[in-house]
Design goal:
Blueprint lengths: L1 H25 L9 E5 L5 E4 L4 E6 L4 E6 L2 E9 L7 E7 L4 E8 L7 E3 L21 H11 L17 E11 L2 E10 L5 E12 L8 E5 L4 E2 L6 E2 L3 E10 L7 E9 L6 E5 L1 H5 L2 E2 L2 H11 L1
Parallel strand pairs: 1-7, 2-8, 9-18
Antiparallel strand pairs: 2-5, 3-6, 3-12, 4-5, 6-7, 9-10, 10-15, 11-12, 11-14, 11-16, 13-15, 16-17
Length: 296
């Protein structure tokens, strides 16, 4: 009787294993998406054009720089931050629900190119740009940025880490007709001028596990007061104003605003929490009046 029961259990176990195996084999295999391979360098910029506005960018390594174009929602510029950049991944998410995966390699001789992913295959083409609309004209936003560089800041913190005697200080933020203006102070206490290459703003998690990739969303800069290649002389300060479409950030996330030095490694990052943006003020009447006079 015991042998019969044991034999019965063995047969039942064998049948269950066979059924489970058949169920696993019968399940559909997830489709594999094609991965685009790109080469980047530190000297040249590669431009990627997508068929829809970009909603998020996921970089495998922070040594890969990714930056959108001010006022253009479907274009991403990438380049290497260092010639020691390892091969890394890049995923671009668009608002139409599509995902574009890339494998990015560093190559010192990469010349940079423009790729249009709105076509069936990546081609070097020009695509129509998708400009974001706002309640203020681009000219008015630019004038307000310039006027705010002459406005006394009402905040003195937070501050970025000091690198090479240079650091960023949050000066406050202002709201006007759906546009958020963030005022920054760049302090150069060194004996070497600081050539400002470009600014970037990313929303990311406040804390990041070492085992996860860097998930971040870039906030497009509509206009800014500083110009490309602006030089902040030694032992001087400069006011920088960045304009964005109005937004807020959740608890557990930060707005990381970066300033990159042209031809140097004094890259600065200032982190703002949601509470800092919630303290934004309305634009001073003196600023609005000055811009109104210029419009006439």
């Amino acid at each position: 009787m015991y042998l019969i029961t044991a034999h019965y259990r063995y047969c039942l176990t064998l049948i269950l294993i066979i059924l489970n195996t058949a169920m696993v084999i019968g399940q559909p295999t997830p489709a594999s998406m094609p991965t685009y391979k790109l080469e980047v360098s530190t000297n040249n910029t590669t431009v990627l054009i997508f068929p829809a506005p970009i909603s998020a960018v996921d970089r495998g390594k922070s040594t890969l720089l990714a930056k959108s174009v001010a006022g253009v929602e479907n274009i991403l510029k990438i380049k290497a931050a260092s010639d020691t950049m390892p091969t890394t991944s890049l995923h671009v998410f668009t608002v139409d629900g599509r995902v574009f995966p890339f494998e990015v390699h560093y190559h010192s001789a990469a010349t940079g190119a423009t790729f249009d992913f709105s076509a069936p295959e990546a081609q070097i083409l020009q695509a129509p740009l998708q400009f974001s609309s706002g309640p203020l004209t681009e000219t008015a936003i630019g004038e307000l940025c310039q006027q705010l560089t002459h406005t006394q800041s009402f905040m003195k913190a937070p501050r970025s880490k000091k690198i090479g005697d240079v650091h960023l200080v949050y000066g406050g933020s202002y709201l006007c007709e759906g546009v958020l203006f963030i005022q920054l102070q760049l302090h150069n206490h060194s004996q070497i001028p600081y050539p400002l290459h470009f600014n970037q703003a990313l929303v990311r998690d406040r804390r990041k596990s070492k085992r996860t990739s860097q998930m971040e969303v870039e906030k497009q800069i509509l206009r800014q007061s500083n110009i490309h290649g602006q030089i902040i002389p030694a032992n001087t300060n400069a006011t920088i104003v960045l304009a964005f479409t109005q937004f807020t950030i959740a608890d557990g996330k930060v707005l990381a605003i970066s300033a990159f030095e042209h031809g140097g490694d004094r890259h600065l990052e200032l982190r703002l929490k949601g509470k800092h943006l919630l303290r934004s003020r309305t634009l001073p009447s003196a600023v609005l009046n000055a811009v109104s006079v210029r419009r006439r």
